C-alpha cells in the first residue's frame, strides 16, 4: 500500500512539473506602448567636479579621450526647449581618433518587436586612424556588428531616426548611443536626445518598414574582470578540495579503534550518572565516567568547550577576511544600508506603507523580522559610514554561522564522537558558499539556517517548547522556515499518538505539543505587532500578512537559481494564476510523499534527513526560489551524514555545496562584486546561457539521485556506510589511479 502511495505521488509530481513548463508562463515582461528607456531625455543627472553623471546610463570609450561626453543645458526661453527639454547629451572624441559608447540595459521579451527612436545631430565627423570609420549610430552591446540609423556625415539640424528590432536569443538589449567603433575610429562630435524604446504589436509596424532580427553574440551584462574569474576558479577548487579532504579524514577516522571516543576519553554515547560513582557505560573507568577525563588529567585542550571555541573562532576569522575586504553585493548592499538607516530614524511600523519610496530594494517581499534586524543595525551604526553599517549587517550572518558550527559539533559529539563532529563542523565552516552567504550577502539567510537547524535539533531531542519558540522566530524572519512545518507536524503527531495507548489521556507531553503549537502562533502574532502598529484598522493580522507577502508578491518562476525551471529556461520569467495552482498541487503532493517516508521506520534521526530533503526539493522543483535556497539544505544533510555515516548523503551534500557556491559565485563574478569597491546591482543569468542551463541540469540530476537515496534509506533501511581507510593515504591514491586505469585498459 505504501509503495502504491509513493508511486502515485511520484507520477503526480512529474505531471505537475510538465504542466508548469507547458502552460504556466505569463505574456512577458514588457507591455506594448510602455516606455522602456529610463532618462531618455537626459533630464536626470548629478553634477560633480569631474563632469556630470547621467542617471541610468553607462559610459565607455577608447584610450586617449579625456572628455568623452557632456550634458548641454537648455534654457527655458530657448527655441530648443520645447523639443529637448532642459538638456541633451554630447558625445565627442575630443579632437582625437577614437570611439564613445553611452549605454543602458533594458529587459525585453524574445521575438517581440520594439520601436527604437532617437534624435541625432552631427556637428563634426571625419575618419580616424583606421582605414574605415563609423559615424554616429545606435547599436546594442550584445552584438556591436549591428549599426542602426548610422549618420556618417554632418547634419544641418536635429533629425529623428527610428528603426524596429526583434531580439531572437536574448532577454536583454543594451541600447547604445555610439560615435565611432573599436577598429573603425572616427574624429567628431554628435548630439543625442529623446531616446525611446517601446514594444509594439506586429500589426502596428509602419508599412514598408524593416524589422531587424537581432541575434546576441555575447552577454554584454556580464562583468569580465580577472578578479571575478579568479574568485570563482579558486574557491570552486577549494570547495571541491575541502569536501574530498574531509571525506578522506572521515575514512581515516573510521579506521581508528577509538573513533567513537571523545578527545577527553569519554565515549560519545555514555550516559552521565545522576549520582557520582553510580552507573557504568563504555567509559574507561567508573571513577571518571560522569566527568571529563581532561579535567582529571589536566588536559584542558581536550575539553569539548575548548574544541568548540576553536571551531567557532576559526569560523569567525575566515569570515572576517570577507567582512573587512569586501563591501558586499554592491548596489544591493547600498539599498540595504539606506533601508537600515531609514528604519532607525522612522521606525518599522510604516515601512511597508512607504515601499514605493525605496529604490533598488523591494521591501514588500521582506518579512518583519528582517526589518527589526535592519532597524537595530541602523541604530547601532548611526555614526558609521555605509561601510561600517555593511559590516554590522553581515556580522549577523557571521554570528549565525558560528552558532551552526557549534550546533554541528555538540550534536555530533553526542551521537558520533569528537573526531567526526570536528570534521563535520570544520567542513561547514570552510565551505565557500557558507562563507559568502554570511560574509558578503546582504540577506539574513545564514541566520535563517541557524534557526532552522536549531529547531530541527530541538525537535529530535524532544525539547518541544524551545523548538516552538525557535520556529516562531524563524517564521517572523523568513516564511521559508515553514517548509519544515509539515515534517515537524508529522513527527509531533506521531509523538502525540505514541505518548499513550489511550488517546483519551491528556498528559504532560500531549499538552506541551498542543498548547505549544497554539503558543507558537500567538508568538508569531505578537512578534509582528511592531510593524502592524497603526494598521490594525486595515487588517487585524496585518503583520502576519506581511510575512505571507514574502511569497504572495513574488511572481517569478526562478530568480537566478540552478534548478528545474532554470533548466527549462524560465529564469526571471513571470507566471500566471495557473502556475500558482500547479505549484500548490505540487507542494501538497510533495508534503504527502515526504511525510509518508517517515512512517516506514519512524526513526527520529531521519527527521534530519527528511528536513534537508524537503528544503532541497523546494529549492530545485518549486516556484519563486532564489540563489539562496539550495544552500539551506546543506547543514541538516551534513549532520545526518555525520551521525549515520551515510556515504551517499555526504556525497549529495558535497555536490550541493559545490553547485550552490557556483551559483552565487557566478552571480558575484557577473555582477562585478568580487572587487573591493562595487556599486552595481545583481546581474541576472541569461536564461539560455550555457553555464546556467548546464549547472541547472546537474542540480536536477543530483536532486533526483537524492530522492532515490532518501527513499532507499527510509523504506529499506539501507545505509551505505563510509568505509574505513586502513591503507596509508599515498598507497590508497595509487590504488585508486590504478583501478581507474584498469577500466580503460584494453584486454
Outline of the structure:
By secondary structure, the chain is of the alpha+beta class. 49% of the residues lie in helices and 13% in strands. Strands 4-5-12-7-10-13 form a six-stranded mixed sheet, with no helix packed on it. A five-stranded antiparallel sheet has the order 3-6-11-8-9, with no helix packed on it. A two-stranded antiparallel ribbon has the order 1-2.
Task: Describe this entry's structure for a reader.
This protein is of the alpha+beta class. Helices cover about 50% and strands about 15% of the residues. It contains 23 helices and 15 strands. Strands 4-5-12-7-10-13 form a six-stranded mixed beta sheet, with no helix packed on it. Strands 3-6-11-8-9 form a five-stranded antiparallel beta sheet, with no helix packed on it. The chain has a two-stranded antiparallel ribbon with strand order 1-2. Strand 8 and strand 9 form a beta hairpin. Helix 19 runs antiparallel to helix 20. It is globular, with a radius of gyration of 30 Å. The protein starts with a helix and ends with a helix. About 5% of the residues have low confidence.
Question: Which properties best describe this structure?
Answer:
747 residues; alpha+beta; 5-stranded antiparallel β-sheet; 13% strand
Q: In percent, how much strand structure appears in the residues?
A: 5-15%
The oligomeric status of these chains comes to: single chain
Q: Please identify the structural class as seen in this structure.
A: alpha+beta
In the predicted model, the low-confidence regions spanning at least 5 consecutive residues are 270-298
| Strand line-up of the largest beta sheet | 4-5-12-7-10-13
What form results from the Cα inertia axes?
Answer: globular
Number of strands: 15
The profile of the biggest β sheet is: 6 strands, mixed
Secondary structure: helix percent: 40-55%
What integer value in Å does the Rg equal? Answer: 30 Å
| First-last Cα distance | 49 Å
Amino acid at each position: 500500500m505504501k509503495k502504491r502511495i509513493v508511486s502515485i505521488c511520484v507520477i503526480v509530481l512529474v505531471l505537475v512539473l510538465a504542466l508548469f513548463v507547458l502552460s504556466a508562463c505569463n505574456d512577458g515582461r514588457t507591455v506594448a506602448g510602455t516606455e522602456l528607456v529610463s532618462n531618455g531625455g537626459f533630464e536626470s543627472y548629478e553634477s560633480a567636479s569631474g563632469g556630470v553623471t547621467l542617471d541610468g546610463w553607462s559610459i565607455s570609450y577608447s584610450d586617449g579621450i579625456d572628455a568623452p561626453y557632456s550634458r548641454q543645458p537648455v534654457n527655458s526661453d530657448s527655441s530648443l526647449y520645447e523639443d529637448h527639454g532642459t538638456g541633451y547629451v554630447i558625445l565627442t572624441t575630443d579632437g582625437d581618433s577614437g570611439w564613445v559608447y553611452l549605454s543602458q540595459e533594458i529587459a525585453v521579451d524574445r521575438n517581440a518587436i520594439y520601436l527604437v527612436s532617437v534624435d541625432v545631430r552631427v556637428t563634426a565627423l571625419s575618419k580616424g586612424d583606421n582605414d574605415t570609420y563609423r559615424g554616429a549610430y545606435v547599436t546594442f552591446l550584445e552584438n556591436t556588428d549591428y549599426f542602426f540609423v548610422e549618420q556618417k556625415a554632418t547634419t544641418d539640424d536635429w533629425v529623428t531616426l527610428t528603426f524596429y528590432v526583434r531580439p531572437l536569443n536574448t532577454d536583454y538589449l543594451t541600447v547604445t548611443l555610439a560615435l565611432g567603433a573599436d577598429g573603425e575610429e572616427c574624429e567628431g562630435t554628435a548630439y543625442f536626445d529623446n531616446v525611446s524604446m517601446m514594444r509594439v504589436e506586429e500589426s502596428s509596424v509602419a508599412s514598408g518598414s524593416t524589422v531587424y532580427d537581432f541575434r546576441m553574440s555575447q552577454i554584454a551584462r556580464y562583468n569580465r574582470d580577472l578578479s571575478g574569474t579568479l574568485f570563482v576558479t579558486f574557491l570552486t577548487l577549494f570547495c571541491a578540495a575541502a569536501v574530498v579532504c574531509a571525506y578522506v579524514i572521515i575514512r581515516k577516522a573510521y579506521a581508528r579503534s577509538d573513533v567513537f571516543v571523545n578527545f577527553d576519553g569519554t565515549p560519545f554515547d555514555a550516559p552521565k550518572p545522576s549520582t557520582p560513582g553510580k552507573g557504568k557505560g563504555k567509559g574507561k573507568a567508573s571513577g571518571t565516567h560522569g566527568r571529563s577525563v581532561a579535567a582529571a588529567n589536566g588536559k584542558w585542550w581536550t575539553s569539548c568547550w575548548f574544541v568548540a571555541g576553536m571551531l567557532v573562532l576559526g569560523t569567525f576569522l575566515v569570515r572576517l577576511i570577507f567582512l573587512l575586504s569586501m563591501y558586499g553585493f554592491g548596489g544591493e548592499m547600498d539599498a540595504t544600508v539606506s533601508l537600515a538607516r531609514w528604519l532607525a530614524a522612522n521606525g518599522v511600523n510604516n515601512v511597508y506603507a512607504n515601499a514605493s519610496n525605496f529604490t533598488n530594494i523591494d521591501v514588500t517581499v521582506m518579512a518583519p523580522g528582517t526589518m527589526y534586524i535592519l532597524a537595530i543595525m541602523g541604530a547601532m551604526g548611526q555614526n558609521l559610514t555605509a561601510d561600517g553599517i555593511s559590516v554590522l549587517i553581515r556580522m549577523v550572518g557571521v554570528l549565525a554561522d558560528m552558532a551552526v558550527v557549534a550546533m554541528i559539533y555538540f550534536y555530533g559529539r553526542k551521537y558520533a564522537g569528537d573526531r567526526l563532529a570536528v570534521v563535520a563542523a570544520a567542513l561547514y565552516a570552510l565551505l565557500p558558499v557558507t562563507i559568502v552567504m554570511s560574509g558578503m550577502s546582504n540577506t539574513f539567510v545564514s541566520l535563517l539556517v541557524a534557526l532552522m537547524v536549531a529547531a530541527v535539533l530541538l525537535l529530535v531531542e524532544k525539547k518541544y517548547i524551545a523548538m516552538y519558540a525557535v520556529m516562531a522566530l524563524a517564521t517572523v524572519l523568513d516564511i521559508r522556515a515553514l517548509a519544515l512545518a509539515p515534517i515537524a507536524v508529522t513527527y509531533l503527531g506521531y509523538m502525540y499518538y505514541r505518548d499513550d495507548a489511550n488517546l483519551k489521556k491528556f498528559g504532560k507531553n500531549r499538552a506541551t505539543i498542543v498548547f505549544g503549537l497554539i503558543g507558537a502562533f500567538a508568538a508569531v502574532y505578537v512578534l509582528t505587532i511592531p510593524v502592524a502598529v497603526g494598521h490594525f484598522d486595515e487588517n487585524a493580522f496585518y503583520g502576519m500578512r506581511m510575512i505571507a507577502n514574502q511569497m504572495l508578491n513574488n511572481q517569478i518562476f526562478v530568480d537566478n537559481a540552478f534548478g528545474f525551471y532554470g533548466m527549462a529556461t524560465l529564469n526571471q520569467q513571470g507566471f500566471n494564476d495557473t502556475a500558482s495552482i500547479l505549484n500548490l498541487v505540487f507542494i501538497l503532493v510533495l508534503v504527502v510523499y515526504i511525510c509518508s517516508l517517515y512512517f516506514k521506520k519512524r526513526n527520529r534521526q531521519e527527521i534530519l534527513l527528511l528536513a534537508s530533503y524537503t528544503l532541497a526539493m523546494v529549492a530545485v522543483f518549486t516556484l519563486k526560489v532564489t540563489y539562496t535556497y539550495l544552500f539551506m539544505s546543506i547543514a541538516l544533510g551534513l549532520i545526518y551524514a555525520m551521525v549515520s555515516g551515510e556515504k551517499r548523503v555526504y556525497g549529495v551534500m558535497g555536490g550541493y555545496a559545490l553547485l550552490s557556491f557556483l551559483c552565487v559565485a557566478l552571480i558575484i563574478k557577473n555582477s562585478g562584486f568580487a572587487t573591493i569597491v562595487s556599486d552595481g546591482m545583481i546581474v541576472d543569468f541569461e536564461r539560455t546561457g550555457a553555464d546556467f542551463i548546464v549547472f541547472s541540469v546537474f542540480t536536477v540530476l543530483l536532486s533526483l539521485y537524492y530522492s532515490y537515496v532518501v527513499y532507499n534509506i527510509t523504506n529499506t533501511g539501507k545505509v551505505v556506510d563510509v568505509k574505513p581507510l586502513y591503507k596509508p593515504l599515498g598507497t590508497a591514491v595509487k590504488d585508486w589511479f590504478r583501478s581507474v586505469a584498469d577500466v580503460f585498459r584494453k584486454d
